[in-house]
Design brief:
Number of strands of chain A: 3
Pfam families (chains A, B): FCD, GntR
CATH topology of the largest domain in chain A: Four Helix Bundle (Hemerythrin (Met), subunit A)
Oligomer: homodimer
InterPro entries (chains A, B): GntR_C (IPR011711), TF_FadR/GntR_C (IPR008920), Tscrpt_reg_HTH_GntR (IPR000524), WH-like_DNA-bd_sf (IPR036388), WH_DNA-bd_sf (IPR036390)
CATH superfamily of the largest domain in chain A: GntR ligand-binding domain-like
Radius of gyration of chain A: 19 Å
Number of helices of chain A: 9
Largest sheet of chain A: 3 strands, antiparallel
Protein name (chains A, B): Transcriptional regulator
Largest interface: A-B, 25 and 25 residues
CATH class of the largest domain in chain A: Mainly Alpha
Keywords (chains A, B): DNA-binding, Transcription, Transcription regulation
Domain HTH gntR-type (chains A, B): 8-75
CATH architecture of the largest domain in chain A: Up-down Bundle
Order of helices and strands of chain A: HEHHEEHHHHHH
Distance between the termini of chain A: 49 Å
DNA sequence: ATCAACCATGTAACATGTTAGTTGGAATTG
DNA sequence: CAATTCCAACTAACATGTTACATGGTTGAT
């Protein structure tokens, strides 16, 4: 017998559902989210929906406008830059910590992610590539072992995921270059060259930021549905 | 005529009240928070209290245990270390950015905070010293200009404030040393020596972490009302 | 035709009712 | 007396009702 985990509350499930819908592009940026309508769609009452929207507002994925309604976030260029900068800081710090404290685990998990990315390129399967890409960076954070930083990163990263989905149509992003960069980062970690690893991560995210900027300028104010 | 700001919602006011009560030590670490009781105390219904507790849970100040009740957070040694580490990373990044992008504003605001700290030492007024201390670090973050990082920092820092209040009785912390460190940091900024500034910040927060560890070991499991 | 007052509708904020899980202690059993 | 069962009280989760505000279209006056 082992302790059973608390089954997820309705609110948590709802939060995940709405987050997924935003990140996956099912809900477009800026689209309206009525508590009542979401509750009807999900077949539950307004309470857990309201709680979920409040949580997502803190996460930055949703803006709640008093008495007017809730809306999926609409990032401007500055948001994108700030988000990437924040990400860079956290990932650089995390990879340094991970190399110091969890070298073996770090290498193992990054290898695993790189393999998954390579498989996704071979098929090719864009969705799986994105998942493995996310996993790669998540593993860097996990290796840091600092729960406060991991939590902060997770709160930050969902916006980046949503941006990628909304700004890139399937394979706009240069996945070959991306793949190579990930492998370089892994290699730098293997060699315990933390300075190189951090430089590579900074460049990698800067490339992403540039792609975001281009994508964002092509697709300005999108306020459908 | 200028646009009026939206008056704060009951939930926001409630969040602030509870947060202040925790940070100020009015509510001790680990103490129980019943939605009903808080609502009665504040003369409002359970809804805004519930929303506030949910927000504070995300902020890390409160743990909500399903069907059991809500409790003020009870950090262990590891939490303290992780929190300080996280803080260091954000402040170091922010001061680099601030020196690059908002040098004048940074210097001016740090000078202002140092003056306030010095005045608090002269009186002496511990509470004012803490406020000015917090302000000093907040200004470093503000100078970065990165809203994502600022928001993340603010979510992180309230736990640190609460720790200081709960672990230190009035002037346990070495405020003279603290004052000197702040001045050194300011001086390093004035000289645009960002490497020195970051080193000093790391040391400054490490001193705080050490003080927390000592305070924490002296005051283990405190689960009073 | 123009414009402003008005009203119907939609919204989240807030209040309150209901339900199911948790807990601590009293009653019961050995 | 000790251990267990059971029950009453408490709790947050969730449902639903009410209210105040926002909005967009209609109407009525000019």
């Amino acid at each position: 017998m082992q302790p059973i985990e608390q089954p997820k509350s309705l609110m948590e499930v709802t939060t995940g559902k709405i987050r997924d819908a935003i990140v996956s592009g099912e809900l477009s940026l800026g689209s309206k989210l009525s508590e009542q309508r979401l509750a009807d769609m999900l077949g539950i009452s307004r309470s857990p929906v309201r709680d979920a929207l409040a949580a997502l507002q803190i996460e930055g994925l949703v803006n709640v406008s008093p008495k007017r309604g809730s809306f999926v976030f609409t990032p401007d260029m500055r948001d994108v830059d700030e988000l990437c900068e924040h990400r860079t800081i956290l990932e650089i710090a995390a990879i340094r910590m991970g190399m110091d404290r969890n070298y073996d685990k770090l290498i193992k998990s990054l290898e695993e992610s790189c393999d998954a990315m390579q498989r996704a390129l071979d098929k090719p399967n864009p969705k799986n590539y994105s998942i493995a890409d996310d996993q790669f960076h998540k593993f860097i954070l996990d290796a840091s072992g600092n729960r406060s930083i991991i939590k902060s990163y997770n709160h930050t990263i969902s916006r980046a995921k949503a941006l990628r989905t909304h700004l890139f149509t399937i394979f706009d992003e240069n996945t070959d270059r991306s793949m190579g960069e990930h492998i370089q980062i892994l290699e730098a970690c293997r060699n315990k060259d933390s300075d190189l690893a951090t430089t590579l991560i900074a460049k990698h995210i800067e490339h992403l930021a540039t792609a975001f900027r281009i994508g964002h300028s092509n697709q300005p104010t999108d306020t459908s549905t």
